[in-house]
Design a protein that fits this description.
By secondary structure, the chain is an alpha+beta fold. It contains 5 helices and 8 strands. A hairpin with a 3-residue loop joins strand 1 and strand 2.
Length: 179
């Protein structure tokens, strides 16, 4: 299955995406709010961190590429939770920040999750200081529901906590009907 948005082609990841995924983790700006900087792949165990480090075999990770050129933009995920909800996430190359691609891709996956999978609610989280990601969540119609304490000295702004946003199927449907 593939999604085509105005600018992006979004498809399930595969092992050929591995190098692009690793390159994202090597960018200290991309990983700032997750790891405090670039991931040291010599010493970091992907199973021991509290953020996703996809390698192209994950069933809920989708690769995004520019439709016109095939250039790698980043990845999105929509991971099911045990309660009938799902968590959405995204990571984009810094070069593509501020161009609307995060909102565009996340909206496509959000719509798909509600329409095709039947999720009751979709949630997302980020560091309170990650204003860009919070703005994406708000553009998706998500609302802030809580802030939780973070016990990580390596991530700048951790003292301000992690914010959780969500949108229910009913809220999503009402917003869609209104537009």
């Amino acid at each position: 299955m593939k999604f085509h948005t105005k600018n992006l082609t979004i498809m399930p990841c595969d092992p050929t995406d591995r190098e692009d995924f690793i390159a994202l983790e090597l960018d200290p700006d991309v990983m700032h709010f997750l790891n405090g900087g670039a991931v040291d792949h010599e010493t970091t165990d992907a199973d021991a961190v509290d953020f996703m480090m996809p390698r192209g075999t994950e069933p809920f990770v989708w690769t995004a590429r520019l439709t016109v050129s095939g250039e790698f933009v980043g990845w999105f995920c929509l991971s099911p939770c045990d309660d009938g909800s799902a968590e959405i996430g995204y990571r984009l190359k810094k070069h593509h920040w501020g161009r609307g691609f995060a909102s565009e891709g996340a909206k496509a996956l959000l719509d798909w999750g509600f329409v095709n999978v039947g999720y009751e609610k979709i949630v997302a989280c980020t560091m309170a200081t990650n204003l860009g990601s919070r703005r994406v969540m708000e553009k998706l119609g998500m609302r802030h529901v809580r802030t939780v304490e973070v016990k990580s000295a390596s991530v700048p702004g951790a003292d301000q906590g992690e914010v959780w946003y969500e949108v229910s199927f009913a809220e999503w449907r009402a917003a869609r009907s209104a537009s």
